Amino acid sequence: MIRQSMYLTLGLLAGLTLGCEKKESPPAAPPAASAEKAVNDAASQSAAAQKAAADKVAAEKATADKVAADKLAAAQKAAADKVAAEKATADKVAADKLAAAENAAAVQAADLKKAAETKITTADDAAVANAMTMIEQAKNYIQDNKLDLAEKTLEQLDKIKPSLPEAIQSQITSAHKALDLAKATDSVSGLKLPGQ
């Protein structure tokens, strides 16, 4: 029995030894590779987070830029509309003032023309009256045989003759004819016949 016990003990030990053999597990990754992977994973996650943040900032900037551009465009349009309205108002005021000035100038021109015509008529009336007086004076000189005075008076009338009405001009021409006739008659009466 001892022998049997021994065999049994040996068998048990052998079974234990066999059953207790250390199983080999797959080789563990070296600690450096595991750390590198962790760093790479962290870097990838960081890059993804940075890209997401950059995309978000870019989207917010694009939205802010669009809002700012819309506000600027609206402000520019409002300013342009205001300037256009002010210009239209100023143009209307200027046109109204110009029309009023033109109307006032037309009224003033009409008044001045009327006043000038009145003065011309008055001046013409005075010139005609003066010419008529001088014509009568020349006729009286011719009748009184003061032919030199009649000739001087007619010379003065000849200077203003173009500005006088035709009726007066014809009277001056008649006075010249009367003077010429008086000179001719005076020449004939002044002749002495022989023996006188």
Notes on the structure:
- The chain has 196 residues and is mostly helical.
- It is rod-shaped.
- It has helices spanning 2-19, 31-143, 147-160, 166-189.
- The chain is built from four helices and no strands.
- It has a domain at 116-187.
The arrangement of helices and strands along the chain is HHHH
Strand content: under 5%
Shape: rod-shaped
What's the β-strand tally? 0
What percentage of residues falls in helices of 4 or more residues?
over 70%
Low confidence ranges: none
Number of helices: 4
Sheet with most strands: none
Q: Which secondary-structure class do the elements indicate?
A: mainly alpha
Distance between the termini: 233 Å
Rg on CA atoms, Å: 69 Å
Summarize model confidence as the mean pLDDT: 80
Layout of secondary structure:
Blueprint: H1 2-19, H2 31-143, H3 147-160, H4 166-189
List keywords for this structure.
mainly alpha, rod-shaped, 196 residues
Q: Would you summarize the structure shown here?
A:
The protein is mainly alpha-helical.
